[in-house]
Specification:
270 residues, 7-stranded mixed sheet
Length: 270
């Protein structure tokens, strides 16, 4: 069993090329196991203001384009931009439509003109960005006055069961250290955007066994890209140790995997 979890951010940054390559490889399998991603993205869609319709929207970190297609259906008279750092994801999304343009780009340096979008929508993408301050700055730049940034991300508390179980096995870095929710609060408050809503909500998935969880992380492309991560395959003794350490977390529905989801809606001042 390979060692699978999530790329690290502050305190040891993942190489963006590794992140892009990992998600590119996962493009074909991603949607088959994207239960969390669809639930979170649907929740974020439901949080969008209902009193406006964008002329141009951006799906930032569009992945396979699932929510680009949803945005295209919701705002069918609008121009849609789907952007992702992983070319493999764009290659998968483009034939399925939904957006007007599919763009390879980095959320920290958007290849878009100032004041060119009325809505920036980003579901479970910006946690991979090392410089979230730059993400907010770029969103501010490309938004029109009165435009909306709606994002969902992950914060500390995500996959704590897997993190704590690995800690009992070998003490090595296996699971990402996400930003604190308070960091999201501070950076959003300082972004120049008006914070309409910002909250953290747990989302718990259940699995019959540890292998099912790690298989899903692999299919999602959410490999362990931490600097200093263990190399090669994970030995059988350590895997058995992980299974034993995770078992006390078991609930009636199965082994829980908690994702601490950040939902935010911000608006650029007029």
């Amino acid at each position: 069993m390979t060692d699978l979890s999530l790329p690290n951010l502050p305190g040891g940054l993942p190489d963006k090329r590794q992140v892009a390559a990992s998600f590119s490889r996962a493009a074909a399998s991603y949607d088959s196991v994207a239960e969390l991603q669809r639930a979170v993205g649907s929740e974020l869609l439901g949080r969008l203001p209902t009193d406006r319709s964008p002329v141009r929207w951006l799906d930032l970190g569009c992945g396979t384009g699932y929510f680009s297609r949803a945005l295209g259906e919701r705002f069918n008279a609008s121009e849609g931009l789907a952007l992702d750092i992983a070319q493999g994801m764009l290659n998968h999304a483009r034939p399925l439509g939904g957006a007007t343009h599919f763009i390879a780009g980095d959320a920290e340096r958007l290849p878009l003109q100032d004041a060119s979008c009325d809505l920036v929508f980003s579901s479970l993408a910006v946690q991979w960005c090392a410089d979230f301050r730059a993400v907010l700055s770029e969103a501010y730049r490309v938004l029109t006055p009165g435009g909306v940034l709606a994002f969902a991300s992950l914060c500390v508390g995500t996959l704590y069961e897997l993190r704590d179980s690995w800690r009992q096995v070998d003490g090595l870095v296996h699971v990402n250290r996400f930003r604190e929710f308070s960091t999201y609060q501070q950076l959003c408050a300082a972004s120049g955007l008006n914070v309409i809503s910002l909250q953290s909500c747990p989302h718990v998935l259940h699995y019959p066994d540890v292998r099912s969880l790690t298989h899903e992380l692999k299919a999602l492309g959410a490999h362990n890209l931490n600097p200093g991560r263990p190399g090669g395959l994970t030995g059988r003794a350590r895997i058995m140790g992980l299974i034993d350490a995770y078992e006390p977390f078991r609930q009636a529905q199965g082994l829980p995997a908690t994702y601490q989801v950040v939902y935010a809606v911000l608006e650029k001042p007029l």
